[in-house]
Amino acid sequence: MPVSPNGLSSELLEELAALAAEKVRGEGLRLMGEGGLLPEPAQHLMQAALEAEMDEHLAAGAGRVGGRGSRSGGNMRNGYRAKKVMTEVGAVTVQVPRDRLGTFRPRMLPVYARRTGALDDLVISLTGKGLTSGEIVSHLAQTYGMTTTKETISTITDKALESMAEWRTRPLDPVYPVIFIDAVHVKIRDGHVANRPIYVAVAVTADGYREILGLWAGNGGEGAKYWQTVLTEIKNRGVRDVLMLVCDGLSALPDAVNTVWPQTVVQTCVVHLIRASLRYASRRDWAEVARDLKPVYTAVNEEEARQRLADFDATWGKRYPSIAGTWQRAWSEFVPFLGLPDAIRQVVYTTNAIESLNARYRRAAQACGHFPNEQAALKRLYLATLALDPTGRGRQRWNNRWKSALNEFDVLFDGRLTAGRV
Q1: Does some domain include residue 164?
Q2: C-alpha to C-alpha distance for 52 and 39, rounded to whole angstroms
Q3: Residue ranges of E strands in 71-146
Q4: What is the pLDDT of residues 151-176, one digit of tens each?
Q5: How many domains does the chain have?
Q6: DSSP-derived 3-state class of residue 109
Q7: Based on the domain organization, do 256 and 120 belong to the same domain?
C-alpha cells in the first residue's frame, strides 16, 4: 500500500481529506479541539497502538505470536477501561485494553498518564515564551477544547526542574574571551514581596557565539564569598581561563575574579555606565547627553578620556553634576577598556545579544507579577532560555567581525585563547 513521507497510508489520507470536505460543507473546518478534524484520527491511531501493544505483550508472555482474544501462557485479554487523554490536538477518549493477570503496562500511555508528552512540551514552550499559567489554561480551552487548571500547568513545568539542574552543571568550554555578569530583577515573595536580582552569566565563545552559562539567585547585597562560590562553580565545570570579565557596579566581584582566575581583566560595562548616567538626566536630554559622553569611551587613551570627561562636565555639570562623578567612581574598572584594540572594543561594548536576552527575561518575569520562591523564578527564566534555544545555550552570533577580534584577543592576551582551546 503506498505511503506518504510521514508513514501514513494513501488510503488514510484520502479518508481524512473526505472527512475534512464533509466538515467544510457542514459547520466549517476546525482542526483541533472539540468537533475538530484531528482528534478523531488521533483517537483511532492511539487505540490501534494500544491494541498492538497488548498483542505484543500477550505474545511475549506465550513465547509465540499471539492474536487478539488468544490465551497466552495463562494470560488473556480481559476487557477495556475508558481513559480520557489530553493531547496536542484536543481531548480524546481511548479504551485501554486489560489483561487477566493485570501485567499489561502500555508504554504509549502509562497507567497514571492523563496527557501525552507532546502536550507537556507545548505547555513548557508556551511558558518559555512568556505566557502565564492562566493564559495557557485559556489558550488550551479556546484552541484545543481542553479543561485544565493552573496547578496542572505548574505540575507540567515542574518537569523542567530536573533538566534545569543538569543545564546548570553541564560542562563548559575551557576558555572564554569574555564573560558578562548581569542581573535581571524579579519580585519574589519571601515573607513579603521584594525585588531580588537573578544574575546571569553570558559568555562570548572562542567561535564568536553567545552562550548562557547559568542563572543564580541573589539578595542584592552579595559579597566576595558569594561571587567566589559562583565563579568557582563555573571553573569546576571546566573553565580554566577567562580573558575578560565585564560587570556593572558589583563591588565585591573583582576580588573574587582575581582569586579564581588571577589573570582575568575585570572591565566595567560601558553600556551600564551610560545608563547610570542617563538616570540623572531628564529624558528630553538623553540623546544629547549620550552624544556628549561618546568621546569619553571612544578616546584613544586615558589622558584623552579624562579631558573629554572634563569637557562633558563643563557643558552639563551645572545641570547634572552627578554624571561625571559616576564615571570617576568607576574609572579604575573603566580604564582597561581604553587600552583595547577597536575590534575587541566592539565585542565588549556591543551588548545587543545581552539586551535581547534581558528583554526576554523581563517579559517572562513581568508576566507573572511575582514568584513564590527563588526556584519558581529560576525555572521561569530557564524556560525562557529554552525558548531561545532548545539546548539552553542561547546561541547567537555576537557580531559579524569576529575573526578580527579573535586575532586581537590572541595577540593582546599572549596566546592564552589559542592555548586554552588545545
Answers
A1: no
A2: 20
A3: 77-87, 90-99
A4: 877 777 777 788 889 999 999 999 99
A5: 3
A6: coil
A7: no
